[in-house]
Amino acid sequence: MQIEEAFAEVKQAYLASNHRKKVEIIERAFRFAKEAHKGVRRRSGEPYIFHPIAVAKIVISELGLGSTSICAALLHDVVEDTEYTREDIEANFGPKIASIVEGLTKISGGIFGDRASVQAENFRKLLLSMSTDVRVVLIKMADRLHNMRTLGSMRPEKQYKIAGETLYVYAPLAHRLGLFKIKEELENLAFKYEHPAKYAEIMSLVDQSEEHRQKVVEEFVAPVREKLDAAGFKYEIKARVKSAYSIYNKMETKHIPFEEIYDVYAVRVIFENDDDALEKLRCWQIYTFFTDGHRVHPDRLRDWTSTPKANGYRALHLTCMGPEGKWVEVQIRSRKMDEIAELGYAAHWKYKTGEQDDDSELDNWMNTIKDILANPEPNAIDFLDTIKLNLFSSEIYVFTPKGDLITLPSGATVLDLAFAIHTELGLHCIAGKINHKLVPLNYKLDSGDQVEIITSESQQPKAEWLGYCHSAKAQNRLRAILRKDQRTLTLRGEELFNEALKREGVEATNELMTRLLSAYHLHTREELYQMLASDEIDLSGAQLKDMQKSRTSLLSKMLRNPFATKKKDSAEKRPPIDRKAVYELHPDDVQPNYKLDTCCSPVPGDEVLGFVDDDNNVVVHKLNCPTAMRLKSSFGSRLVATRWKGRAERFLATISVDGLDRHGILEEITNTLSQQLGVNIRGLNIAAKQEVFHCELTVQIDTTETLDKICRELKKIKDVKFAKRIS
Fold this sequence. Notes:
This protein is an alpha+beta fold. The chain has 5 domains: 2-153, Hypothetical protein af1432, CATH 1.10.3210; 203-350, Beta Polymerase, domain 2 (2-Layer Sandwich); 361-479, Beta-grasp domain (Ubiquitin-like (UB roll), Roll); 570-644, no CATH class; 651-725, ACT domain (Alpha-Beta Plaits). The strands form 5 sheets. The chain has a 5-stranded mixed sheet. Strands 11-15-13-14-12 form a 5-stranded mixed sheet, with helices on one face. Helix 3 (50-61) packs antiparallel against helix 4 (67-74) and helix 3 packs across helix 9 (135-149). The chain is globular. The two termini are 55 Å apart.
């Protein structure tokens, strides 16, 4: 039977590992889960039990965890989906497994529900359970990975929602835990479902260049192989190809074609090492084998053997000039370093005596999380963004005057360091001192800086400081203090407001408040109260009475609801949208059946998705728009899959053109667009510096095909080197 065969694979993987062999409890957990899920099927039609088995297989095969985690993976949906309770699990399998299953049940259904407050609460639960036992989040990662692998059976708008939240939270979380393989697969799968055509195109380009790549790598490593053999190393050399998602990201952010990405592949040298004391020395020995025969990029040496990354990653990286004048990144790792790099904290357990992980970096991160949870953001999206600051940041290493090493996110400032040392230091910080030179609060630190924090008792935290903070801890502490101060101001402002209303005999209605907020361009009544208390506005009696009579502005309506759009009349409210069907966008209609958001300016041909607002209008965003990324994770139930149908010349796009300056080149560019292509130019900005010019053109177009054609024709003009869309 297929179910038994699938479970046999889990058992086989467990027996092949070096864990203590507790097969009996794993078999009991399987029988228990099988009975509990009896008769239930997944959306794909297969029996539900296949999902817990698949998660258990990922837990042992890809995370290397032991029997406790395998049992918890097999049982992870039992309490949520069946009649069994936590007490039943504890009676049969003990408190540890029951506790992990309970942690997984609390964060069931993914981090996100339909409402933002629910998501934030679930995310807090995930992080709280993680700070008690990191295995909860590791099993949750395995659960999400299997859901992503089987995403094909879901409807398109569900795929967008799940892929969106995977990229927004799960992939960064995997990155921060050092689960590189899982992070890469999650990103690639999300990319595959969000941009199927782009994914297929990049994979095809990678496959086409495979043979040539292998040849280049072999030529590059041949002299190093000889030296490794002569020195008696046992090793393997792999050519690692950049993931499809990373390639796509680079193409999008740098606006370059596939052919111009120089670091598509990297070489990884993994050596066997039986003596930890010699591990670092051997890395540097292999480094010299590369430097002997190749030119090395001076700014691309990264030594993570001495100071590991915050997720435990250790390796020695260098970049050498390879064949055909291309830079090749080289990663040098011992077998132990390689396993920790791929499996993260899970692999640490393999090299420890007990199952508990006592890694100090993990403890540091858990403490940061506890700090954030102690003062949670009231706004759910702000809460998630604060967490993301710490999830996906690369690190810098700075020193205190006494020589203590402190790890901070890349881009951290003097203020971040002050808060990292102590909250009081942060609140009273006025400047920093680096190499006897005074620097301001917002000065960005570099790795290796030795920084002294200068404080003053009279210094008070200010709202603009939030813009100086790049670490979650600093932002969180600062927000908590500012909120406390604002609360006092708000209460005083509310008193003044009520006194003014009473004095003038004006009734406090929601309509009056809406008009006031609109008049002062404010978002919340708290902001109004704070401005009143600070004497920034003065409410006169005449003004209050005028407000009672005036009509509500469109802006105030918009402020009340992020999805609200102008309502003419309730009778004109559009009929409900069928969110299960693909919604067709008709730009050629006199009144298009959608609204475009200004944050990303999509054009027909772009991959887009829709959000249904309160009036049943479909608001369209590009798939990779940052706002859409957040909305996918926050309002997944409002998603609708979309498809362009028809074309109309009503869209604006901006093209960046760079080249060598010469007399008459602007005339040639405008003639190519106006005369040859018949394109309407709506904006033009050109500047030349010495021999080079940069031009930004805003053109009116109908589809992305026209845009591509414009770029191709512009590149044919003599001395034009680059032409690419930038919006």
